[in-house]
Amino acid sequence: MEAVLSRMDDVNATVSIMAAEGCEEMSGNGELEESSAMEASEVPASPPTEMVKMSEENGSAADVHEVHEAPEAPVDPHPETFSMPLAAEDEEGELPADFERLWKAAHDNPQDFTSWTDLLQYCEQESHVTASRRALEAFLVRYPLCYGYWKKYADLERRAGYNDKAEEVCIQGLQVIPLSVDLWIHYINLLLGTLDMNLPESPVRIRRVFEDAVQAAGLDFHSDRLWDLYIEWEKEQGNMKNATAVVDRVLKVPTQLYNTHYEKFKEQLNSQEPKEILPPEEYEELRASCRQSQKAERAEQAQEEEAERPPGEEEPATPEGTDTEELMQKIREQVLLRRDKVYQDNEGEVRKRWHFEDAIKRPYFHVKPLDRLQLRAWHSYLDWEIAQLSSDTKESDQDPNQAASEGSEVTAQPQEAPEDAAVARDDYRVRILFERCLIACALYEEFWTRYTQYLELQSVDEARAVFKRACEVHLTYKPNIHMHWATFEERHGDLTEARRVLEALEKTLPGLAVVRLRRAALERRAGQLDQSEALLREAVAESKEKPTLHAFYSIKLARLLLKLGRNPSRARRVLQEALEISPDNDKLHMNLLELEVSGDPWASAEAVQECVTRALAAPLTPDTKILFSQRGLQFAEDYSNSIQSVLSVYDEHQKLLQELGGTKRGAENGDEDPEKLIKSDDGSAVAVSGTAPPTMPHVPITTPPPPVMGADMSAQTGYGGYSNWYQQPQYGSYGYQNTWNYNQGYYPPS
Q1: What value does the mean pLDDT of the chain take?
Q2: Are 65 and 183 in contact (CB under 8 A)?
Q3: I need a labelling partner for 556 at 20 to 30 A (CA). Which of 70, 151, 352, 621 fits?
Q4: Which DSSP string corresponds to 176-215?
Q5: Can you tell me the distance from the alpha carbon of 61 to that of 143, in angstroms, rounded to the nearest whole number?
């Protein structure tokens, strides 16, 4: 243990020196990258070929970072109420000269990770305890997954003589990242260096912390160092039987260095008496069975010897109740035989996971983005682990049905227990993998959302805790995950919490339109139509300085008043007021026209034409103006009471076409080139004009038909031509419907 403590102190000293010199070879956790030569002797055994390949590529097991901090619900390694350590009184006077400048830079842009690391390195270089404490506290609130800085903070307090505060810092860090093997080891070494081991309660406390550590992080694929430390500590305490019990537990856990635990156990078994390292029950059981087997062998051998013994010679006496070396060897063989099956099964589990683990190159947290291959590797690993759980669940569901069909409830019960245990074990492994993933991928919403979807099927409260952790700690500026959370709360009936989530998001990201619309929609679904309207009116009032956003909110408010409030006059007033601010916004004109068109056709005829006139007078594009004119013409055709009014509107439309260049008519009839000639069946070219030749040429459907000879030319040309080209496909939609489809994909999947 002294060697372990010495090694940890050496590493910490090296970290401090390199940080003071401005070294940049640190990960985002504040830790030095470990050398590939540090643990070269701990390379896993060779049976799986994938393992050999990984070891050759990485150089050693130490190249794979052994830190996986999963921000699970608090795991209290020491059952005491905990709060953030209070800063000690400033015994050092004023802060360093550049502290305020670096502090301000970090707080002005809290998402700039470099500003924070500059501040922390400066404080460490200045060796100013108060400044370092203040900077570390602020930094760890924003980046709690950087386990290396928790260790730095604990070391700072320890060097300053505040051992209790150092323990509190470690405990708080482990509440945030209970999967951090390195932080657990640091905490345990801190206790080993500060507790008086002569007191009877000290070993009890250390053992309790070890148990909390392996419970929280023992299933991590890189947790071997934690298990080894636990086993060696028990040996140092002289508790060989406890050490064997820990070995038996780790032999069932698929870890990177799984084979080393078994090899060390074999060495220990061969170097000591089985009675000293085995549990009493197991030893007595094996001793009795081996002695019985040995006795049977001796009896058979005695019969053979008696047949050959000379007459009158007696059988030599053998001492009863003594354990020979031969018996001890048989016991050792049985001990290994029992554990070989467990070891082989565990090796199979390791082999299944090895290529997934090999694909993960950055298992620790960093603000730098991950490449697509890394994200895909995590998704693939999660898919596989969940599939393992699903297969066990199916098997668990089938056996009870088969037992019920046979009418044997008594025999079904013992079959369910192992399968249920397997399902629970696989579920725990899935959760551990999710937590590991959420360390490396903490800044990616997709993984948080996937985890909540997995947990929601089992526990709403657990899913809610993950949402809370994601939104309030790691993804405070990512709106999608917050809206997922609000949708989750609304789906489960907690409207108050859904409101709170959206309100908090809007305070964090003010001016985000989708959040305000979510709030309005939530109130509408809750039956609070007045509150929904109030939210939209507030948004309209606050966005007057931003014409585009103001028009957007105005359209939404008008839509609410028209469709749900059944109040066209109020909706009309909203759009008209918006047009005073943004007269060049074609969507406002189009929605106002749609409002008028959707009313009573006879009562709204004048209002429709007024809308068209307003749009034509506005600074809109020529194509948009033609669109409005065409829409007014369609309305007149559909609902006008007299042909004169239709012709009047049509004449205005023709004048507009001529005013906008005289060539728009050909384009809207489907001809790309208005000067294009139409060829007749005999190959002669015919110009499209108001005067037609005596014989009717073949004319495309999008071209107005020629007038009938002898008829009223003005009436025939105008109305006849209009009625044909008006009904062509390009005029089947006038755009006003698309203005409402701005929010396709508005709600994220839930």
Answers
A1: 76
A2: no
A3: 621
A4: H-TT-HHHHHHHHHHHHHHS-TTSTHHHHHHHHHHHHHHH
A5: 27
